[in-house]
Design goal:
The complex is a heterodimer of chains A (112) and B (114). Chain A has 112 residues and is mainly β. Chain A is 0% helix and 54% strand. Chain A starts with a strand and ends with a strand. Chain A is globular and about 40 Å long. Chain B is 0% helix and 53% strand. In chain B, strand 5 and strand 6 form a beta hairpin. Chains A and B meet through strand 6, strand 10 and strand 11 of A and strand 5 and strand 10 of B.
């Protein structure tokens, strides 16, 4: 069965510093997609970054980048130059075919 | 373009009742997915519709059902409500069902079952 594990329920980072959120997943598929979603308090969930499993190059989106280790089934999110607006719940997600699995989330606090 | 809209935003029901939630996807999007979000279980996939057909279903009892209309709007129905059904129900739309397409989430409907 496919599962997504986020082992850090809560994380904190000083403003302007860098933080890494961990995610591991379990799958027997070779073709899949991985995502990081951000859900600010009382606001809509938005996509932060996406990684195709067949691509070896790590995805980047401005201050957000991933470390995708396919063999280790690891997909961590690095946030550089953290801003107050980055405070949110972050969900790691896996999709293969029509199945979509989410981790339990990591609550990120940004300290001014 | 207008984003994904969900109605109602808040709902209070009692055990045994049934409820219907509505989701209007972004214009042009033909895929609609539903998720249940609870503090204990996190986000769980309910089902996905594409062009009025259910493409896949998560591991939920038959009390949870849905449908999609020709205009891509989707409804989710929960019958015989239980206390454990209290959750935030999220709807997301995308152009297709492929993982290549970004899913855009709505604000959710918060259902409270008393």
């Amino acid at each position: 069965a496919q599962t997504v594990t986020q082992s850090q329920p809560e994380m904190s980072v000083q403003e302007a510093e860098t933080v890494t959120l961990s995610c591991t997943y379990d799958t027997s598929e070779s073709d899949y997609y991985l995502f990081w979603y951000k859900q600010p308090p009382s606001r809509q969930m938005i996509l932060v970054i996406r990684q195709e499993a067949y691509k070896q190059q790590n995805a980047t989106e401005n201050r957000f980048s991933v470390n995708f280790q396919k063999a280790a089934k690891s997909f961590s999110l690095k946030i550089s130059d953290s801003q107050l607006g980055d405070a949110a719940m972050y969900f790691c997600a896996y999709r293969s075919g029509n199945q979509f699995y989410f981790g339990t989330g990591t609550s990120l606090t940004v300290i001014p | 373009k207008a984003g994904v809209t969900q109605t109602p935003r808040y709902l209070i029901k009692t055990r045994g009742q049934q409820v219907t939630l509505s989701c209007s996807p972004i214009s042009g999007h033909r895929s609609v997915s539903w998720y249940q979000q609870t503090p204990g279980q996190g986000l769980q996939f309910l089902f996905e519709y594409f062009s009025e057909t259910q493409r896949n279903k998560g591991n939920f009892p038959g009390r949870f059902s849905g449908r999609q209309f020709s205009n891509s709007r989707s409804e989710m129905n929960v019958s015989t409500l239980e206390l454990g059904d209290s959750a935030l129900y999220l709807c997301a739309s995308s152009t297709r069902t492929s993982g290549r397409d970004t899913q855009y989430f709505g604000p959710g409907t918060r259902l409270t079952v008393l």
